């Protein structure tokens, strides 16, 4: 399933007809209730590789390969050239945090029940939650509290600490908000929107001087776009610009 | 104008009579309504360099030089040895965010209308906003939301997410607050204040171990100052210390 | 005293009977009112080393050694393998911030009076506050405001900006909360809890790709633990798992 | 072709029957005479993507995607879990340097004619040569000389500066040497060999403290291997150990 | 004098008529016999700033400003967009190493007498030698030996360890070699040459993945140059291409 | 034994009577023939900790603690404030490389028999060799060759690739050379020598801009030393300066 998820996101990333992506969960109960315990159990890991190592070092190699492949699948939304909006509702445990942490904008319902649940199954979360939370939420004390305790926190708490940008009353409202934001982004210059995503992701991980240098080089090609003229003219004429596909 | 801005900040940075700097906007309408579209248009960029390259690669070199020079001008407030307080009001679009992101402390009016506006003219912001916002505001979802959508956000929202430290009712109040903070900083040991600014900026961009190491070396000279004794004595005697210029 | 503090924390870090640590202050007046001015004065520094250098460069070497030793003592809580909860109340100045910034979860009373006080004695804080605050609180404007001005901020303000996770009415309440959290953490798999602390600390200081890579390698050994099976079974059976000491 | 190259290397990387890989060129004339100019021309790049952008910014996005895909193909040898030995002879221009820079051990004939040839077709090499040469050859003056001038250098010069480990008289000798080394590596514990490759690659790119930390975590699983006991016993008994596949 | 040096290099960096730069010394005795001891003495430093601080911390600030300004002057050759070749002969002490370490290609006479001389005047070299030597010469043991001991090493030794690319019998020969290399570089596409310098400098200081990413973005604009077509055609037709100025 | 080694080095590091340190091996046969296989075997590791974990994850924690403690012991020579010269002869396997890689200057006999021997006992070297070799020897192909193959290389080969600075005919010669270098370093300003070591180690691990910044701050205290005046005067008067202890 996660390999398919990556394939879909990678395809949308390069699809010329796509300007923004919304990821949401089916049904009312849960966005994602976490990893399928059975499938992810150690035997599962080894079985799907066709290996049955007994040496702890060889097991470790097999596990590392599996974790890295899983990380790659989930990270696809972050690497996706198009902006990704994640809408969460109901139960949003474990993988829900891994997945949504890779999105650009997070939206949820007020009563979403979040948890970094992995500690409760004897694991440190390894598909991205622990790597990304300290970089996307400002309070390190809060990040450690929820990650170490696996306690449930609500959509409203998620909004207060900045994990999500919007907490709406119902799933319908949250989807509507996501569509509104996605529509807004889709109307902008794709050169500008995709460049902004790339530069923000680069900035988060790099020193200021490196980020400024990279930005200058990036824009040395990007500002040669005809979108600048189109956008400026539309701004002056109060019309809506149209931009070439990307 | 931006070269002059840099010259002024660089001069104040080394001026022995200055202890703190306040940057604010003239008039009631705007702190800064963004880049002068005409001047910044591509032709403008090339014209001011006396070049008319048609080769996209040579245009790119010219653009990169221009962006880096512009970044250098705006970054001067961050590199300035003295603390810089930025007071914003009214329209504060585009360059307003670039400029204020370099300041140490941001203050605004509640009704300031902020926007990372560049996307609306077909550009990814390249004078520092995208490099600095992820490092000065804790919610990455919020940073991406406002940067990708170019939506307007108020001074109150800016306070809630931590972009500014104070949002006051009127421009007059905001200026008064800035003066109060500036006066407070000006009474402290300049060795302590300027060292604190330097070490915080270094810490933001470096690993913890590197920051601690740098801090130890920095203070190995700084704590030899006579300001420590003066400050301590004044603390005990409840008098106001005076410190040598720096 | 700080060497003893390090010895205690280092011992608890490896003690097989310890699952979580709470650091709090004795008495009602203060968690920590800051460095003992007399002991920390320059003469103090040199005296305790048995050196009386007059050369500013040799003094600097002596100061650097002293600062690094002090940093090492305070940093022990961060390096400690077990989660550390810090409970603050009353006056919490200077070293209180250095110390608590190393803890994983910070709890305080609403009326705690915090201050990054060092500027008021002519110093830039050098035992860790300036290195850690930009990485544990999301608003850089707030961090600079309190660090440059040495102004007092309350427990409630600390909660609002995310410096602490909980602000309770009384010290008794704060301690109770800390015990509740500590008890919760102590019931979890120590492999999972200690791995989570390590991976979050690593993530804070490293690029995303490096953090993901490290996480995969870390868990390649960690998920071979029998705790996973125990935790999963307990989860299914709704019983409380017991885990081997670590 | 390069996508196939990556597929082959990726397959060998995980193949349990492979212990070491040798990459060499067919025929006598050349290991690789560089990129196929026709295929790599700009039109070629755009054509194979099915895009015909005229906007310089959209062209840039297309080029960037192409370069990154090409880099990924060539980098596969560096990421390959098994050690890769590259044997070069005859003309070894452009891509020959990109490819061989990713190998672990480089071997050539004395009369190999190397060149970082890209400058001569109006390009800065972008498939890895400029990124890797400064990290695999110690003399930065030499690296810049050959990269800026595109001048031809011999196998003997490559040996003198450390780009290759062995320069042999003939291609046959070079292949024989590679087989000798490969055979030697294949007899060792694969846990030890593959761990050594991973840790050296990590060390090259990371600070010392980070490398030591990563090494400790890596080996915390790896030294639990039964290979240690087998290797030690064989060492004492002067027999040749056999190790499980990996 | 060093401010003038920077002005000259900065001007040549952007001058459209310049393709390569050679820095050499006048006369037969020395390329550079090191810093003017009198001018650089502490009093000198303070005097030229018009300050007479007695406080060690304020002296330190003044020294730091002076060192950074000096570093900026010397670093200009490294930041220069055009390739810089440094030719050394005779005495080449102290600043000679600082200066030449910033050049791209180093050439000397066999009997050049080099020394990292600063230790002999009670100083750790601070204008760039200690920062750059470990990154431009592969043997760290050699770098430490000459830097700690201040011992003299010859042009031939410099060639052997890779500090220089060529050691010629006489100054005349060395200049002739530099002119030959400069002429060669001047005939190449300036887009390719200047991009190669930039990418190599970036690679030296960054992780591999960051270097590859930056390279892709850099070339996304650069390969749109008409120089590629011109160079390729000239290659096929065996003619010498001409390239637009940059 | 290694804890004692660290204690000795740490003591010499701060001893005011020491200016340089030489580490050499007793007897004729070996500098170090590598780890005591018995002591380092897994049981050994667990036994000395008083633990008998069977859980692979708990074993991993125990191993990691042990490796880090061992790394700390060996790294003491690198962190030592005084320059350390390592003299090797005879068999210099495994730990011999770990230890000597931490020294500042390496000297050996021509017939020293070196080997990164760990692969032959089923291990990736984890006490520092793999972390340091890529940073102290320029040829990455050579580093990988000797680390992956565990093949023996001579003192002469070590000199050729830059691992050592001097290869002398006999152990007596090598010791004499070390004493000569140590005597030379001991006559210099300790402020200058120790600063040079610190700045070179910092430069190796940091980006150029960070190294230059650190250097400026370091020297802002260091150049206030009276050693500068003493050294300069002695230079002018052709006398030997004496410097205060450090």
UniProtKB/TrEMBL annotation, chains A, B, C, D, E, F:
Superkingdom, taxonomy of origin: Eukaryota
CDD domains in alphabetical order: crotonase-like
Family: Belongs to the enoyl-CoA hydratase/isomerase family.
Coiled coil residues, start to end: none
GO BP term, example: fatty acid beta-oxidation
One GO cellular component term: mitochondrion
A Pfam cross-reference name: ECH_1
Cross-referenced InterPro entries: ClpP/crotonase-like_dom_sf, Ech1-like, Enoyl-CoA_hydra/iso, Enoyl-CoA_hydra_C
Full protein name: Delta(3,5)-Delta(2,4)-dienoyl-CoA isomerase, mitochondrial
GO terms for MF: delta(3,5)-delta(2,4)-dienoyl-CoA isomerase activity
Keywords: Fatty acid metabolism, Isomerase, Lipid metabolism
Pathway: Lipid metabolism; fatty acid beta-oxidation
